[in-house]
Prior knowledge:
Elements: E1 13-16, E2 20-26, E3 31-35, E4 38-42, E5 51-57, E6 60-62, E7 64-69, E8 75-86, E9 102-106, E10 113-118, E11 120-122, E12 127-135, E13 137-141
Antiparallel strand pairs: 1-6, 2-5, 3-4, 4-8, 5-7, 7-13, 8-12, 9-10, 9-13, 11-12
Amino acid sequence: ETLSTISAPTLVYCPSSVTRAVTGTFGLLGGSLELDGTRVVVPLGAVLLPTRITLTLPASEHMEVDLTANALEHFQFPVPVRVTIDYSRCPSSSIAADESLHVWYIDSLTDLLLENLGGAADRAERSITFSTIHFSGFSIAQ
Length: 142
């Protein structure tokens, strides 16, 4: 009988020494915001009043994304917002071919993995898409 081991998920190594950010204001009709291939799509009715959304790709050892609305650390939406994280900057060697990728809600200060949000990975495009009703820090793990 063989004993299978389940390893804890680990954040994908994807170093960047530069922090980049983009901000847009969204209203009832929604819209999208994109930076270096990472995209946020705010659907119709996700915000009722003009809302300033910032997408930040922080300098990090990992493929992290920080999303804020109205400069709040946590923001909840009445309907899900779709986020696509582009991980094309990550070295191919850091992503195991046989491992599935997931997006995790993380503590941006400690990189602690808080909640697995799943996601649909597109390995050809080197991106992963997920939906969320709250903004905070997110990263890719395998």
